[in-house]
Every structure is written in structure tokens, then in C-alpha cells.
Amino acid sequence: MPYSLEGKLVVGISSRALFDLDEADQVFRSQGLAAYREFQRAHEQDVLAPGTAMPLIRGLLAIDDPQTPERDRLVEVILLSRNDADSALRLFNSIEAHGLAITRGALTSGRDPWPYLGALQCSLFLSANPDDVFHARAEGLPAALVLPRPAETDESDVSEVRIAFDGDAVLFDEASELVFQAEGLQAFQDNELMRDDEPLSPGPFASFLLALKRIQDRFPEGESPIRTALVTARGAPTHTRVIKTLRNWGVRMDETFFLGGIEKAPVLAALKPHIFFDDQLRHLRDAQRHVPSAHVVPEREQLTFFAEEQVAAASEPQPLVVLPPTRGAAAAPMAGDVAPEPAEQPLAEAEGTGLLTRG
Asked: Suppose 162 and one of 130, 186, 214, 273 were both cysteines; which one would form an S-S bond, judging by CB atoms 3.0 to 4.6 Å apart?
């Protein structure tokens, strides 16, 4: 009988999110694909150092007892990589050396891995490649771009998995955030007070939060191995709508911080989440020095990305495919070319957008 992913928390993870592949990437960039493959073969027994997402993945996999039959496990992690099977042997050797129960992978030999996320029923996708993150988001999947890991991370802390989220544009949609940006704090507060009985619409990571809740619900209260936290710049009086929204969703956050403009980084340093998701780079720049962090690119920047891709496609003699900005969106679809096969690059900041990229 086929192995079923139904009902499991499935995390798709790229090789560069899971491991530090900077040295191998430098070989690829300076010497080409053949040299890269030879480098990986020559270092097959050299264990790769952990990447940004390693603490989260290790913690999630620790939820299941090693003796639990595979069919009854709550968490499945699947490696997605542009490596071919030959050069990916080092990845699987490193997975084994780190004691990670990852047995499945999709290796695409340079092609995009994101089209397989839906088929693999992924509840979350973490990558160091912005193109893959953007396209996954366009398919309606929770996806985030991992930032460089902090200098010190406790890899052995798996007694519980702590996952921290920003609110607006992450758990909730960005409508309220746009009011704040366009009209200022007073207009934002007035809007939230006027709508405090109206639940906020789900944001890009609402489905992932609900997937975590399904695991939490399997354990007695106070005994769940997953601990969630909301760390938001909101404060009173705009807290009411957030609380009522989570109540409407049937979600109880384990820890909630209404910081009202206080810096998030010191709170996160004390919380020590295995990963923190935020859409605002001004928060992430400080946070990433203390905790593993990932950028949830705002939808407005998603739309910019696809618009730019459409312009680029116009000059390329390639067939176009329709890439809607969000699943089920009523807006007219945008066309974007079949993406080239971009290599993952060192972290850079795209001019004018404030967007962290590796491409």
C-alpha cells in the first residue's frame, strides 16, 4: 500500500536552507558544473555544517519517537534540491551524520523544484532561492526565504519546538499593514477599532499555523512539543482584533507579545525560537543576529516580482505560462516566463525593494 502523506505536517526544505553549502557554491560559480560535481564527490564523506533551518527541522523531527511506525508519524521532511542524484549523495550522507530522519527527496538536476510542492503536500517550504519562494507563494503555499544563520545556535535544544510569527502580512493578510503605511498610525488604529469584531483575513502563513495546531491538539494541554508565539509591533488598542481573529480560527497562541513599537530582537533573543517569520526587514536584520529567521515576502513585492518577470519574458523567445499572484485571486493573471535555472547566490539586498534575495 502506498505511503500516505495525508494528515502529516510536511516540510519541504532546500539543501541550502538545511546545510551551509557556501564553499561548494563558490566552486560552482568560479569553476562551473563539472568542477562542482567533482568537488561534491571528493567531499562525500565530509559532513556539511548546519544551515539556518537545521534547528527547526531537528526539532520538528524530534516530535516523533524513533520507534513510531512510519505510517503513524506526525512530521515528514522532504529534501528538494537542484542537485542531481550523484552530487546529492553528500547531502544524504550529511543528513545521516546529523541523525535526521529524512528519507525522501526530490532532485531536479538544475530545474525548478517548486512545481513538486503541491504533489508532495507540503505544509511549509523553506529555501535560500527567492525564485522558488516566490513561485511557491504564487501557488498558495506557505514559503519563506531563509536568512543567514546567527553566529551561535543551540542545535541540541529539541525538548520543544518554538516557532515565532509576526502578525500582519504573515499570519494575517496585509490589508491593515497597508492602511498604516499609506495613512499613518492614527488611521491604522481607527481602522482596527472600527473593525474589531471583523476577523482579519488569513495571511500566507495562516495555514501553516493551523497545521501546527492540528499536531498540538493531539497532546494534552501543556504537553505539546510545539510552542507558538506571536511577536507583533501592534499594541493596544489594536490588539483586540488580533485576539478575536485567533479566537475565530480556534487558535490559542502559547505566547503573545504586543510590543507597540518596542524592538523585537531582544524579546526574540529571550524567547529563543527555532525560527522566526516576519515580512519586515527592519525587524529581521536585528532578529537574525540572535535567532534563525526567514523573510515572508509581502504580497505587494510578490506582485512586483511577477510584473518584472513578465517584462523580462517579453524579450525572451520562450513560451509563457500563467502565474497568478495568489491562488484563487480574482485579479487578472500575470504572465511570466518559464524561469531559468538560477543558482542560489550569496545574500544580497535588491535595490529599491528592501527584498532579501539570493538570485
From this structure: 273
Report the amino acid identity of residue 228.
T
CA atoms within 13 A on the CB side of 216: 20
SS3 track for 84-95: CCCCCHHHHHHH
- What's the grid cell of residue 47? 559532513
User: What are φ and ψ of residue 167, in 5° steps?
Assistant: -95, -80
Which pLDDT value is given to residue 311?
52
Question: Which residues participate in catalysis according to the annotation?
Answer: 166
Which residue's entry shows cell 498540538? 216
Q: Residue type at 88?
A: A
- Per the structure block, which three cell numbers stand in for 117? 510542492
pTM (predicted TM-score)? 0.83
Cα 255 to its chain centre, rounded Å, is: 20
% of the chain beyond a pLDDT of 90: 72
> Residues 48-97: pLDDT tens digits?
999 999 999 999 999 999 899 989 999 999 999 999 999 999 999 999 99
C-alpha 95/C-alpha 48 separation (Å) is: 9
What's the Cα-to-Cα distance from 77 to each of 160, 211, 215, rounded to whole Å? Answer: 17, 14, 15
Q: How far apart are CA 158 and CA 226, in angstroms?
A: 10
Closest to 335 (Cα-Cα) out of 311, 304, 358: 311
E strand map for the chain: 9-14, 75-81, 104-107, 124-127, 143-146, 161-165, 226-232, 255-258, 275-278, 293-295, 320-323, 334-337, 348-350, 355-357
